[in-house]
């Protein structure tokens, strides 16, 4: 069974940076892309960014475009990263990753859902 291990979260001040790491274990070969999602306090989970495993095509939510960068390893390590810069208090959330075999814009849909999520990693942006 595929599993996701998110790490790298923490408490930072506005304007600072963080790198989140997603390690995918188990059988990920049924998926063509991996995405980052986040759930702010008291709100629904939302799409942040996604990348295809093969070609490295990317898609970003408008609120993070230009500040966040998604990337992945080009080997069998099955690791994805989310480099976050110029962090804002509105970026405070629990961040999750997930993999799927749908187009990136499907992962970005507000009604996109998966049956299984990892524990996530907490990011708090506060002065």
Set out the fold topology.
Layout (H helix, E strand, L loop, with lengths): L2 E5 L2 E3 L5 E8 L7 E7 L6 E7 L5 E3 L7 E5 L6 E6 L8 E8 L3 H4 L13 E5 L2
Task: Report on the architecture of this protein.
This protein is mainly β. About 5% of the residues lie in helices and about 45% in strands. The protein is built from one helix and ten strands. A six-stranded mixed sheet has the order 2-10-9-4-5-6. Strands 1-3-8-7 form a four-stranded antiparallel sheet, with no helix packed on it. Strand 7 (about 70) and strand 8 form a beta hairpin. The longest helix is centred in the last third of the chain and has 4 residues, at about 105. The protein starts with a strand and ends with a strand. The relative contact order is 0.32. The mean pLDDT is about 95.
Q: What's the rounded overall pLDDT mean?
A: 93
Order of helices and strands: EEEEEEEEEHE
Ranges where pLDDT stays below 50 over 5 or more residues in a row are: none
Could you tell me the radius of gyration in angstroms?
Answer: 13 Å
Shape: globular
Counting DSSP E segments of at least 2 residues, the number of strands comes to 10
Can you summarize the main beta sheet? 6 strands, mixed
Strand content: 35-45%
Q: How many distinct helices?
A: 1
Question: How would you summarize what this structure contains?
Answer:
With 127 residues, the chain is mainly beta. The protein is 3% helix and 45% strand.
List keywords for this structure.
45% strand; 10 strands; 127 residues; 1 helix; globular; single chain; 4-stranded antiparallel beta sheet; mainly beta
